[in-house]
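G.,

No rush on this.
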Amino acid sequence: MSRQNLIARVPKEKKSSRDSILSRRIAPAFWIAMIVVMVCTFLPVAVLAVAEPDGVRSVDGLVKHFYEDTKHVFSSPLRWGQSDFVRLTTLSVSAFAIMLADEDLQDRVQRERTQTSDRISRWTDRYSKRVINLSIGALYLSGLVCDDPKLKHTALLCLESVALAEGITKGLKHVVGRSRPYGEKGAFNFDPMRFPPPPYSLSFPSGHATSAFAFSSVVAAQYRSWPVRLISYSFAVTVSLARVNNNAHFLSDVFFGSVVGMAVGRCLVQFHRSDQRDDWYVLPTNHAGRIGAGISVWLR
């Protein structure tokens, strides 16, 4: 081997040795972080089977709980009243109006992107779903440590809300088959029910927006203080707008995804509130042949 080749190889060997030392130092921290993430992610599924709220005290109880909630969510349109259909019509018209302006709005967003918006959007794209999973695990762990049934119940509702909302969204994605903005095929290019779908497809609705609002709507409904609501919905809005900034979705995609997530979350919360006894209610009375009414108060 020539002297010149030997000299050229020395730095590579040193660099390789340095990388090996660095990787040995990083490896323990990496695996510790992975263990923490896995524990917080799967903790709700593993321990909610013995949770106290709603009688979920066994695996059978957990399965029944999920079954009843899933049935309630998917059958909820059968119980809609006039106001619900008016709300649905209003949201549908709004989504279509946004869709008409999607291309112009998308062009404007892409022209006004900044380094700050790109940095925030990259972070939310990469970590938003992990933050949701970790938060669900943290909610349940906090309820376990503090012996707070409401925290544990909120974790369960968040887990169900995200799972059900994402299932609905994934189904809609394949049924609609809308092209993504980066596919450059326009806002009204649809390729439904194709398996496997094209790489530029599955834009409508946004899965990230769905998950973020499914989680945030439950937390905001369970804890109604304005700081909790502000933080929860700020997180969801940031995640949603980041997808538009990254040219992964049109604005109507994230709008409809947020509607799906919020609808599922609020539906579950209202369902479990209806399971609880009212604080007060009126009862008919009959005393010595005299018919009247009495008020019964439930103290918790």
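When you get to it, here's the other one too:
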Amino acid sequence: MDYRKYARTDAIRRRRRRSFQRFCFFVLLLLLLMGLAAIITWIIEAITGSGDSSSLAGASSSQISSSVSQAASDSGSGDSGTAQGVILPEKGRVELSYFADAAFVGDSITVGWNDYKGAAALPDTNVIAAIGATPPTGGVQWKDDAGELYDPLAKIVEANPSKLYLMFGANALVVEGDFVEDTLIESYGAFIDDLQAQLPDAVIYIQSILTPTAEGTESHAGLTAERIAGVNERLKDLAAEKGCWYLDLEESLCPDGVLSADYASDDGLHLNKEGYMAWLEYLITHAAYDPENPYVGGIDPGA
């Protein structure tokens, strides 16, 4: 055996082995350094990125709020899985403070809130309504309690409510004829357009027309259950078209198809105190979810 050749070969193998070992060491060291850098970067982002996370959360809430204020045709879109224009179902309860920046707008049925909002603990809620009123368009003037004329749209804008609860229709439907229904829907839509132009951030609720008792219908021949049901369907469609919420008050106040005797005044058309309290209870449990003004307990049961 040539030991000199063997020694040279063995020395070469050892050098190659040491080179490979050094290479593996450097690769392992590099991987460790990269892992350490990733951990340090994650820690820094976790500490300094909390503000960004809040911003992202805020953006998400803003996007939800924006989608709520737009019309939706898909029943899976909108607030809490409910599309606007679809009947807003019963939700969680809101505090009475929810109505502090609200305005009730309508005819003589809405006027009654002036008599009962104190008993309902709604002292700050705006009531902008008039006897015999229909949706005001084209500069139509209403009369206040003193008989003075005023511009209802200007008064609503001046109040600057965040929520608007609208109820119109009974006065128009007293007159019989299909043209009356068409005129009502057209003026309703034009009024909502005016409101959205002046108060773009306000949440608008269209409330169903209430079917009078038999006594009420007898004295107001145009206010039949069938006719009111048809107009309410058109109001529901209008809510979808305009991006508003639709509230089916009849399911609470007219459980048997007409205004409950427990809630009706003597004329069978207007409400008594119990009627306004039942109306308020319905509104408390049928408010569109708002993360800035959440339900009692802070949970959206429809989410």
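The longest strand covers residues 102-106. The two ends are 86 Å apart (CA to CA).

Enjoy the weekend,
O.
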